[in-house]
Write a structure and sequence with these properties.
Twelve copies of one chain form a homododecamer.
Chain A (H helix, E strand, L loop, with lengths): L5 E7 L11 H4 L4 H11 L3 E7 L3 H11 L5 E5 L8 H9 L4 E5 L21 E4 L4 H12 L1
Parallel strand pairs in A: 1-2, 1-3, 3-4, 4-5
Chain lengths: 144, 144, 144, 144, 144, 144, 144, 144, 144, 144, 144, 144
């Protein structure tokens, strides 16, 4: 009998489509496309999906629609991490577990980035470990 | 002469499409569809409309477009109640009266849900009376 | 077999005896006596009672004594809403459900009126819908 | 034609019945009875009344009942000055002007005494001038 | 020569008349009557008195009247502990020492119960030791 | 033997030279010159002086120089009341008593006007009684 | 050789499509269409573009897409100015300079409008100068 | 008939006499003299005046004296912008309109510079556009 | 059959080794040695132990090691009461009940002493009753 | 040539020696010994060390001594995470990178656990992923 | 060749002209004149100057004018230390180093004296060491 | 007769053993050993001692033990300056005077370093004058 692949969805919030060109001193020079290809190679037995939106409500849609269709969500909500009770509500409303990711160490930055409204509804959060954080989160879902 | 029906629009914000499945210990197990049918039966001489969106800006669009086309709006803005100055601006900008609704008693919940930025621009607010709150709000518009 | 009347007690806190003469631009020009008569006419199968006191401890007495003797309380605690942990304790201590009422929209007024210490112990709260709020609260108890 | 006497009511709040014995290093050693007699002698053409209560709601009653029956109220609300929205509401609700009095300089004392919730509804406030403050307040009403 | 009995007054504030029925998971199932009888048996050489009121100003009256007539006061001010500057003033105004009591551990409860305005004017405070706290307070007065 | 006149200095801070023309809905339409003449007439046996400056440091100079040369100072520090620790220091540094005056009721105005840094170093403060406040303050010095 | 036109994009956020009808006592009675035509006439050698959206994420899209395609952006983010870290991130992420505009003087309005999260990433901000502000911002880009 | 020149007064507060030498990474290397000459050339039909003072009270004097003698004031109050209620009072007290200027973007700097007490009494404020801001403000007065 | 002695451990935190010499106006002139001997005499059927350390981590060690070996702990954590989440964690981690003691009335002292991080994990707290507090706490354990 | 093993030090702060027995509903039932053995098996080419202390200053010693002797530190500072500027200083003072770990999701717990003073000096932080977090941190050091 | 004397300017702010007479329990009984003579004797090879002003703007003038003309400034800004962004700006604007002095220990006094806005622009600050602080500051400049 | 040497103890808190290697851009490149030797040479008639510990409780021990054995203490408590009520208590408990030292200007650094809990119990504090601060503090003790 064939074991089914673990299904993981990576959701990116606002401005993360600019990775690689935006403020490279903070976010590095690598776009996410390469990273995503690398992750697929690294975890061949995992079904990885990826979406991005700058629109808060579309992210809420995505989180809702993913419920039950994936085994785990990896959510980097960008600037909405700090302000969106509504997106936090969506994370709280679904049963599929969510891991929060911050590429940069938000605690080295401005005060308005030190509060993450989503974190209390997530399983956990990985902060400041760069693009490596995505790989670690996938590994958590596979091996936990 | 025929008296025209009172036109009332119910606007639902983020995650309220999940009513009935989301956190039933807070929001109950009934979806809004049944409630809406029930309300139409209860108020046969009222023209009831209903829309939902997870997108803050679409809600602003809806509020703007409703101005002058309805006699009253019933707005449950969900998580945007606590964070959206822009949606509050839309409520302030129109002439059609708005009643705010919270299905759960937000004051029994986390501190970030205790502030409702929209309330000061609404006629009033009904909090914690469950789905019954919608019926009471409609009655306010009909009988006031 | 005769169904018993639902018993509802309306409790009014400080300065609400002045309704109709006090700050009419906020509270309107109608005294509560007319409203109470109107409510009795409107709900003939409901046993409505009404008391008012300016004294915080008397209101606590009333709330305590109402426990088990009424099916629902409608409490407009006036200025004590914003300051009285002791009255909130009384609401928390009894089993009879309580609905809070604010005639005016307290969120349009001074900051010291934006916090309602009682609300978290109430079933729910109706704010800003004027004297109509009392009728809606009764209806909630009758029809819920 | 005989000019009517100006009618002034002095209302004292909690613990002010202890004047003369309570913390004399703050409030002095004179009880209020002597002061009141002195004021009557000083202003023979003024009708002066005086009441005291430790009960917040009774003070509200007194303020309400004085409305229209006096030409001016002098209110030393003691500890309720710092906590009572309800008593402040009573001051706001009546048309008779109210002058607030603090015998001691509340700004030299603990922080919880630095806020006076009543002051914004009073005509004005006299603070720290001891029992002399009552005389000055009466003079204001007579001569303004 | 006969040594006089030590005179101790227990003063109970709002809602403490409900002990035994109110929120038993917090306050236990014992009413205070049994406790008071037990205390009288336990300390036969002490003159114990007990009064309760829900009215803030009556509590102030009681505190004032007790001054000099008792050797010690045990004051559980209930909800007024957290809000009443006026009752705190009464405690500060008298010479008879006061021990504050909280039956439950107020620091395990809501934030508005974490501040006790009276405590700084009391000799000391016993918190969270249930009805046993009254016995310990009496013992303090007898044996100190 | 001739009793010496009581010497009183009135010090006016910034913008009070505009009395009568500035925001008459707040400050009235009377300039201070008339008031000062009126006060001199009213208290013929008192030596009244008056100075005004818009410059914080000059006001400090004046307060310092007045020490010992006057029997009482009446200080309306205008906007510096709310911000000047340095002027408050000057009041604290001298032995001559100071009464603070606010013509308008500062508690009815913006929040930044609700704190008066000078008040704790003054004997007392008269607020909101208009130009009458100056007369009452003089009377306090003469009759106390 | 022909000098290229300076390309400037005006971006309008939520509710600014209502200019001219919305709260005219704050925003005036002129819609933005006339203003935009007037600006094109006034600056014939400048390529002016204009877009509006009520949706936060679409505004982020617009800001991102404008990068490198315009010489300057004029951004009136409406209510999102006060709450959107995500839109501020977009402004920070691009190289094209941005000038923030507020038509009304936000400091005369409610406290939640006093903080502008975008301003620190803008070149500068023009506040309270009405529709004239747009012209001044264009002039800044042309002449700086 | 000859149209009179528009009269505009530029008032500079503390440390602005150091422009060109002080912290050039923030304020640039140009002194204000050149700028002022440039402005006079640019607006030959406008009567431009300019004064500077480091003394808060002198700035208040200047603002008062300018009332009615100029058609507009351009006020860069430097550090007093953040602390002076008294200078704000002067702006509020006069009828001549005032535009506030900040050469640097104060929102990129320390928190104590993020609040501008004067702004609510000004017509509007131009922030962060360097010395160009003065020209834009003049243009506002001429063309509005 | 012999009933086992109740085992109680008294733990003293920083600076409590100085009792009797340190700030006697606050802590009295008695060292703890006498008190401890007195307690052993008073409760001959109780096994009393006593340890003191100035080192936060050693106190954590002691609390951990006491778990299950004692029937009750009496903990006066001194200055660590106000700052140590780690010591509070140790109290929360063990099953043996802990009573907190403050010899002085901490609410009469500086604000940084008004918060006790340990109290919510303790059974209860005795504050301000001097060295008598230890005896009362022992009695609670014996008689509860 | 033989590649040297990567040297990693795991440092545990207060109460983490109780893992497996302390509050298992939060921290699980596994002690750290098994986990540490498992990690050594999992990463045979890595030199793993482990120390624990309840004493803040010993943790500082350990962090200092590890500098240059390890390639990476994994630090779970327990309760000191929220209060120790001194331990944060040690992390800031050394060159060896540090990853912070929280086994539980601190954002689901009490407010005093929501601030992590160390995080801004760490490379990054892994929160809420249980004992799995240690494995992910090691992997980060090996593979980055 | 003759080594030039080090030039040091002592600047005193408001009320420091009163040293010796003002609140001697805080500031001692010695005027500054004696101290200044003593300092000149103590450091014969140093050129010491001294000025005082009560006027904030004059102090700004002095600080500006001292730039480049002295090798070090010793600034006791008195009450302006706590409120003057403008004076802090002057310190930031100049190249000559500044040492701040507080004669008394400001941390033992009222909260409004605990913040020193100038300190972050100074080289350093000496607090609470009385008039000796001036000598130590001079020594720092000579020997550093 | 031989005058006894003044005995001074320098106590260093956490991470100060790293001086010279730790963050040299803040603390300089000199270790404290050289400085200590230099101080002994500079003050041959003074008995200087020096100890360092990273452990909060050991520092408390040191402070306690020094009482009466030294004529002055110079205490640089490092990170504990900002968090340790217990160490502050030790300073308050002894009679030997203490001068606080901060090598760097803590007001130029992060907000959590701006509060020094020890300062109010010290004679005074020297901040930001580098290692020179120790010499000045010794001089204060010798010459005061």
């Amino acid at each position: 009998m064939v074991k089914e692949k673990i299904r993981i969805l990576i959701i990116h919030g606002p401005n993360l489509n600019l990775l690689g060109s935006r403020q490279p001193e903070i976010y590095g020079t690598k776009g996410f496309d390469n990273t995503f290809e690398h992750l697929k190679t690294l975890f061949p037995n995992t079904a990885l999906s990826y979406i991005q939106s700058n629109i808060e409500g579309e992210l809420i849609d995505k989180v809702q629609q993913a419920d039950g269709k994936f085994d785990g969500i990896i959510l980097n909500a960008g600037g909405y991490s700090h302000t969106s009770v509504a997106l936090a509500d969506a994370v709280a409303a679904i049963k599929t577990p969510v891991i929060g990711i911050h590429i940069s160490n938000i605690y080295k930055r401005e005060p308005e980035r030190h509060t993450d409204l989503l974190s209390k509804y997530c399983v956990g959060t990985i902060t400041g470990l760069g693009l490596k954080g995505y790989e670690l989160a996938i590994r958590y879902y596979i091996e936990k």
